[in-house]
Design brief:
Two copies of one chain form a homodimer. Chain A is of the alpha/beta class and about 475 residues long. The first copy, chain A, contains 17 helices and 20 strands. In chain A, β5, α3 and β6 form a beta-alpha-beta unit. Chain A is elongated and about 80 Å long. Chains A and B meet through α2, α5, α8, α11 and α14 of A and α2, α5, α8, α11 and α14 of B.
């Protein structure tokens, strides 16, 4: 069944919620989630429901739903599994049109749980109520500061949205999104997907103007045909990065007792993802790495790559990786070579990768601009942006300590990154940066990576950078065929 | 040609060195490398050579080699490329038997450079002198505090040794080895390998008692037959983790102008690596991740894996990954299930992965011991070792802040890790831990990861842990066939 945009909008941005299972016991989820919600400064009204309490966390408690002064947009449900059915009845009676069931203990536990889940679903559908979960770890809608999740996580506003059947993965991803300096628009842990499926959320996110990139973890499709139909529409407008769990018998078995998902055969999934334009990833790391590139880079218009490197080995690894995946290491024209000659020592290799032979600082903007302005190159990977040790040392009257070298490397990196961003924006071609200065503390770099993440997402290894670049190219190829 | 153990021993642990190209100009490598060497408190004598200086960095300078009071074990050579031939002549005349040529600008620049390199090699061979490089970024022999490298890097003593044709990669690897809390025995950037090849170093490291695991980056083999012959011998005794660059035409082209390597066809390399028992990796990340497992874990005696997880999604991903690579997700016997029932809630899934349903702290040692003591299980991956949020919250009188939750999670992690190590040691089966608590600061975990790295190397993602475990299994399978 299709759900209207408005209904889902109220799930991510309810104007008011009833909170079933609210408690004053701080070792229960009913307290922790409510506390998280309050700490997030949720914009709407919160009505905790508990027959035995007067006040929880400073908020007035209602003994039951019937007593509420208004009909809330959504019910957040964290009562024991056996009580969920009655709660849904009460919600329907009150006219509540959406429910988030955080309670677990349904289809993922087998036949008996499946029956309970089916009964809940039937009741909700008859009552015109949509459900998220059960077995969800929560929802976030950042625009209304709706941080309604089990772990206390407060990502900043941003253009990533998350749909995950696993609450565990949703938490891991959003924890790492925070650590990497990225931001979120919507987050939903869809759990067992009794009612609303991954595809319903994808459809909603297609229209959410704050969502630019969708990250998703799925273990199984409740309605594969509809999923791929919708995913195909969404993927024309926004990249969907998807990690598929449960694609081996052992993994599928684990998934069944995790979110009650029935997984599909891997080869079918692979083909279907490709056809739908879904960017398949195989690790959490890829999901995060690629999302950073999609959020911060324009798509390449072709598959010819330029590589600028501070060291030979990194350049070789990136050339290998990208070539294996169908990219072309751009041939440098005579004109481009002649221009580069002005800024590089006589013994430079005059080929792509452009090896800066240990010297980059103060020239990277020149080199980068020559390559970006070439019609033979569709995008760039820069490996190392700190300047070499000799150049760093030459800023001092005597040789600085390793820590001091590390400090000035960070400084140079920050300056060069500014130039890179300006040129990238001007030429509107993707420029991916990886940097891993071996000397000194890494914290300085991490801070800059974080600060600039939504503007230009940086990597620490050549493979991360290359894989993210390849993902951009694949999506561009899906959208407008650049082979 | 084979080189005696003693000759190579003197390369990693010279009793005295002549330093050709020493200078008082702090923006030259001749100053920086010498400074790095001094800062490392090298155990042996250092004789800087420079006709125009009296003293450099507080050390007496000699105008030429002939003036030295003894014949040094090795010459470190950082003079311009055109001067190297004469320097080698002087070394041979002085009776020096080993040279490290850091100077670049030889075979990697083409035919003219190759000729120069050949001339140097001929002269050295006639004079009974072995050479490292040219185009090396240096050598470390930690036992004699011989830190003779271009970047100022001071890894602690440990059981990893590095052989890398790329100085860039050698620096990246050793920088990250430091950051991850691991340690090094020997490090050599073999550069163009005019004389000593990767296989010579492998052969030496086979006998180095401090070396337990060898990390290597190669772009090409100068003598493939001999390489594989030696690698096969070494791999029976010590794991060789190897990253091969230049295995695509574009990468090979880059490699040629980088270390003058001629790369082999990828499929041949793959088969040859397998036959020789070399563990092939494809990324810097894998090289580091696997080395941590090999340094800190016993090898599994079979391919049956137990998984303990704090969250369903992580367990699914690890089951998928390991199954795809031929491992068996161990079937839990009735006896094992009954034992586990005592420590897990009634609704636990009674299957492997053992999902701790959000509750682990205070039980992980029980669960782990039950699985480790089972004859049906050869090793364990633990996903999440902090305890769940409910358990952490229950330690407080009221709900702690996210930061405080993060802090106590770190504390619990450290305690549980101790128990894991004890049980792992007692049962002598590999136990790999991944942990990524989404709330609070990561620094606390990073410190523990670092501190324990050589004892038990921990990971932050399920894939890292699974891939490292698979690498252990593959090597065990090569050594004694555990399929």
């Amino acid at each position: 069944m299709t759900h209207s945009k408005d209904r889902l909008k109220r799930i991510f941005s309810p104007r008011s919620i009833a909170f079933l299972g609210a408690t004053n016991n701080h070792t229960k989820w009913g307290y922790i989630v409510l506390s998280n919600l309050l700490n997030g400064d949720f914009h709407g009204n919160i009505y905790p429901i508990n027959p035995h309490e007067k006040e929880i966390l400073g908020i007035k408690v209602y003994s039951n739903l019937a007593k509420l002064p208004e009909t809330p947009d959504m019910a957040v449900i964290i009562v024991p599994p056996s009580a969920v059915l009655q709660v849904i009845k009460d919600c329907v009676d009150k006219g509540i049109k959406a429910g988030l069931i955080i309670t677990a203990g349904f289809a993922e536990l087998g036949d008996r749980g499946q029956e309970m889940q089916d009964a809940i679903l039937n009741l909700a559908r008859k009552g015109g109520m949509v459900l998220v979960g059960p077995n969800s770890n929560g929802i976030m809608g950042i625009s209304s500061q709706f941080y309604c999740t089990m772990p206390p996580l407060y990502p900043q506003p941003g253009n990533l949205s998350l749909v995950s059947q696993s609450g565990n993965l949703a938490a891991t991803l959003s924890g790492n999104i925070i650590k990497r300096g990225l931001g979120i628009s919507c987050y939903v842990s869809s759990g067992n997907e009794a009612d609303l499926h991954t595809e319903d959320f994808l459809e909603y996110l297609m229209h959410d103007e704050n969502t630019k990139v969708i990250l998703s973890y799925v273990e199984g499709f409740k309605d594969g045909k509809r999923f791929f139909q919708i995913a195909k529409q969404v993927a024309r407008l926004k990249p969907i990065l998807m990690l598929k769990g449960g694609d081996t018998p052992a993994g599928a078995n684990a998934a069944k007792s995790h979110t009650a998902a029935v997984a599909g055969a891997d080869s079918i999934i692979e083909a279907a993802f490709k056809q739908a334009g879904i960017i398949r990833v195989h690790t959490i790391e890829e999901l995060l790495d690629y999302s950073g590139a999609f959020i911060s880079q324009p798509l390449p218009k072709g598959n010819r790559l330029g590589i600028i490197t501070l060291g030979g080995g990194w350049g070789v690894l990136v050339a290998d990786f990208c070539t294996r995946r169908g990219l072309k290491i751009a041939h440098l024209s005579k004109d481009t070579l002649n221009k580069l000659d002005k800024y590089l020592p006589s013994w430079w290799t005059r080929s792509n990768p452009v090896d800066m032979v240990g010297g980059m600082r103060g020239k990277v903007d020149k080199i980068l601009e020559i390559l970006l302005s070439s019609d033979d190159i569709d995008g760039i990977i820069i490996l190392g942006l700190t300047g070499g040790i000799l150049e760093l040392a030459s800023k001092y009257d005597s040789l600085p300590s390793g820590d001091e070298l590390g400090r000035v490397a960070v400084e140079n990196f920050a300056e060069s990154l500014k130039e890179v961003i300006e040129l990238r924006n001007y030429y509107n071609k993707p420029v991916i940066v990886a940097n891993n200065f071996p000397v000194g503390n890494v914290e300085g770099f991490e801070k800059i990576f974080q600060r600039e993440a939504q503007n230009i997402f940086c990597y620490t290894t050549p493979h991360q950078a290359a894989a993210a670049y390849v993902a951009l190219t694949r999506y561009a190829n899906y959208l407008y065929g650049i082979d």
